Every structure is written in C-alpha cells, then in structure tokens.
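STRUCTURE REQUEST FORM
Protein name: Glyoxalase
Source organism: Lacrimispora celerecrescens
Requested output: structure tokens
Priority: standard
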Amino acid sequence: MFRYVHTNIIAKDANKLIDFYKKVFHCKSINETRDLRGVWLDGLTGLNDAHITGEHLLLPGYVEDHPTLEIFSYDKLEGTIPSEINRPGIAHIAFEVDDVEATLAEVIRAGGSNFGELVTAAYPNGKEAVFVYARDPEGNILELQSWRQINQT
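Status: completed
Returned output:
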C-alpha cells in the first residue's frame, strides 16, 4: 500500500502556528496531539534527548483522518534559514481557496505576510488561475490559488 500521509512543519511556537492554520485554512484537529521522546526518537532523529510536541491537523477538503499537516516543535531548535521560493527542497504549501485576495488578507490579519504579486494566468481548455505567494507567521511560504472556467471566443 502507498498513500500520502502528512507534511511536517517544525515551528518555533507550535501552538501559535497550529492556531494560524486552523483559523486561516480551516485545518481541523483530529485528536492526534504528540508529546514524544525516548530512545526510539533519538535513533530516528539522530539527536540526543530529542523531545517534540505538536499536533496533526486534517487538511481542508478531506473528510477522514489523512492527509495531515503535522506541526511540531522541538525543545532544542537549530538556527533558521529563511525560506526562499528558489531554495532546493520543499518550497511551499499550496491551498486552493474561493477568493485569493480575501484569503491573503486573512493570512496577513492572522500574522502572516504577503510575498510576491497576485497574478492571473491562462491555462489550456479555457481555465484561468489566480495565484499569490504569502508567508505564514513563521516565514514558511504558502501558495494561494483559485481556478475558474473562462469564456472562449
């Protein structure tokens, strides 16, 4: 069996970031909070005395218990490297929303920030997309997108 399970974000303040994703993106608690430590976690992470806390949040648009956004925090955090859209590795998390501009405003009200310009792009088969990048309160890059059918002449 193969299935996508979760994406993990390591947060400076897991509770604050969890609240942000619940409020802005309608992620839901599924009663999977974590307070993990032990020899097995040290072996898995390669860290001594690792301790992580956080929660799995059901991503919007799904009705079961997966996939989730896993937001954890370690007791001991390394220094941060600012997220950049062209840095190798995972670049952003994308959410399809009804109204990109309204959701961007909500991101900003909830402590996030704008990143780049709002753009509209034509796609094949008469589709049009509105996109913008933003940052969550801890600087992780988000993509907001919405799609619509346009009239073809």
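Reviewer notes: The domain at 93-149 is CATH 3.10.180.10 (2,3-Dihydroxybiphenyl 1,2-Dioxygenase; domain 1). The CA atoms of residues 33 and 55 lie 4 Å apart.
Form closed.
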